[in-house]
Design brief:
The chain has about 400 residues and is mostly helical. It has 15 helices and 4 strands.
């Protein structure tokens, strides 16, 4: 079975047996042009043979192209699942063709995920299929393969393109959608004000403050976890109702969010009370402080993890009787901000609400922000009142 082994740091010469100490000392003097960092994923087959093309693909994206750790982890998971499927079926990765990829896709459509025990979503299936096709296209460009049946065909990887061709009347070949399933993007359903208040009241610290940051600024979880103590200290300038905070967006792009003075005051109170007590407790217990610059830590003094934060939000919302996710917190900010900006624009303000929300959300394409505009146009509460009044009228 294919497995992923994370690269460990090289041991010191004093930590290895004397028979290999000289080799360890020589290894420490070798200078690499682009060394792989500790924790880099290495893929091995069942016979512990290094899967070199997969590792080279990850190396280029992680080291040479400097992609984020989340992107590299996603690529590693896709390659792991693909190579593991090939190995279990006795298929060499060089001989894989369109039939093998279609069977791989269909297996995900009929069988649940072995990790989550839940069915794969169409988005996940398409994401993995595109990842496999991307790997084979790279393998041909990099010289690992002379050619492949999975490379060179006019596949359409973007769902929106098919809709654009249909609207314009231009036809496309049937094999363009051979691998990628038809995907419908659901409109976001933001939390109502009552649900948001119930969620914030039920969350324990520091998760209540983290959720408040997402509701007030629209930060992604990865951006939220990168906030530091210096971002909220010192408090906002007297008389200022907000402060601009620089953040590193998805893909390493620079950006900023607007933090209200009340949010910063709550963050400073959290630093003074909960965070200080948790840091002192960890120092007394272990004698060390883990990432002292990070803003959000848990009661054990460790940095809050992405998975734990998402689990707390989901479980708290389920207990309260509604669905709550970290992405819904971000969507709630976008829809609320967009609705208020639309009101200002109707009152004569010279602003572009969609463009403002695009910048605040850190979107690369305006089409992504347009989803929230459509969600705002469908006010569920208002429609419910209209339907009640219509149904209640006598015939």
């Amino acid at each position: 079975m294919v497995q992923i082994i994370r690269k460990a740091p090289l041991p010191l010469a004093t930590d290895v047996p004397e028979c290999v100490r000289q080799a360890a000392e020589a290894t420490a003097t070798i200078t690499l042009r682009a060394g792989r960092p500790a924790g880099f994923p290495l893929l091995f087959s069942a016979g512990f043979a290094l899967i070199e093309p997969a590792v080279a693909f990850l190396h280029e994206h992680a080291v040479e192209r400097a992609h984020t750790s989340d992107t590299v982890r996603t690529y590693a998971e896709i390659l792991y699942d693909w190579f593991d499927t090939l190995e279990q079926n006795g298929i060499g990765w060089q001989e894989a063709d369109t039939v093998d990829l279609v069977r791989y896709r269909n297996r995900m459509m009929t069988q649940p995920s072995p990790q989550t025990r839940r069915p794969y979503s169409v988005r996940t299936i398409n994401h993995r299929v595109r990842g496999v096709l991307r790997f084979y296209a790279w393998s041909v460009r990099a010289g690992w393969l002379k050619g492949s049946p999975l490379v060179g065909r006019a596949y359409d990887f973007h769902v929106a393109r098919g809709a654009q061709r249909l609207r314009s009347g231009a036809g496309g070949s049937d094999d363009q959608a051979l691998f990628v399933l038809r995907q419908f993007e659901a409109l976001p359903r933001p939390l109502s004000p009552l649900q948001a208040r119930e969620l914030l009241a039920a969350l324990p610290p520091p998760y209540d403050l983290m959720a408040r940051w997402q509701l007030y600024t629209g930060l992604r979880v990865s951006e939220l976890l990168r906030l530091t103590v210096k971002d909220v200290e010192p408090p906002a300038v007297s008389g200022s109702a907000f402060r601009l905070i620089d953040v590193r967006r998805k893909g390493g792009k620079p950006g900023y969010v607007i933090a209200a003075a009340t949010l910063l005051e709550e963050s400073v109170a959290y630093l003074r009370d909960h965070r200080h007590a948790w840091v002192v407790r960890r120092l007394r217990r272990t004698g060390r402080d883990e990432r002292a610059d990070r803003l959000f830590i848990n009661s054990c003094g460790r940095c809050v993890s992405k998975n734990r934060y998402q689990q707390v939000i989901h479980s708290t919302g389920r207990t309260a009787g509604f669905t709550a996710t970290t992405h819904l917190l971000r969507a709630t900010f976008a829809c609320t901000m967009l609705a208020r900006l639309e009101q200002l624009a109707k009152q004569g303000a010279s602003i572009n609400p969609l463009l403002i929300v695009k910048i605040l959300m850190g979107h690369e394409h305006l089409e992504t922000t347009d989803r929230y505009l459509r969600a705002v146009a469908i006010d569920v509460c208002a429609l419910g009142e209209v339907l009640d009044s219509l149904l209640g009228e006598p015939a």
